[in-house]
Amino acid sequence: SQQGEEDPQALSIQEGENATMNCSYKTSINNLQWYRQNSGRGLVHLILIRSNEREKHSGRLRVTLDTSKKSSSLLITASRAADTASYFCATVSSGGGADGLTFGKGTHLIIQP
Amino acid sequence: DADVTQTPRNRITKTGKRIMLECSQTKGHDRMYWYRQDPGLGLQLIYYSFDVKDINKGEISDGYSVSRQAQAKFSLSLESAIPNQTALYFCATSALTNGEQFFGPGTRLTVL
Fold first, then answer.
1. pLDDT in tens, B20-77
2. CB contact under 8 A, A101 and B43
3. How far is CA B34 from the centre of its chain?
4. Contact call for B42 and A105, based on CB within 8 A
């Protein structure tokens, strides 16, 4: 089952604009991670935010986490053509049990030059 | 050199055949994972291993088995492949419980 749901499923913007993607999840989490996947390739880790954190920055990336709403957002500022990819949120549950990440279906981001 | 490698990168096989996908890592991580990705979907966990003596089922383990031959090697087998196992398969490693994972380039498997 998919824990996270990204919104929107697809996003097309002009180079230089900001891109915002949202993720909602269902259960209590230990942390939430964002990954990028270029077409047909392996996933690359972007950022991890813990359940007791509300905001985190890494370069042009800004992630927020609202545990009361079970949601997160990823903001990419000043987008570039190279940012074209699919972006996935993935959660680590806090309740123990199975290890591993639970992924959403992803947002496909297209940056128009 | 890539830290997490997968072989083969592409494989076409027929229904009923046995197939093995291999994963090797040079990161020195204890934790290794196998995921599958279907078109338009996120990844789903098949199996994971904390060390060579520890194997655990993920959410979609039916029809698959794994072997952890060494800390650096984790193989996924399909004993009798079926068409709905056509997917992209990823291996991943992690140094920490609940930490970031490092993914291999994937194996594209087609079962005819």
1. 999 999 999 999 999 999 988 889 999 999 989 999 999 899 999 999 999 999 999 9
2. yes
3. 3
4. yes
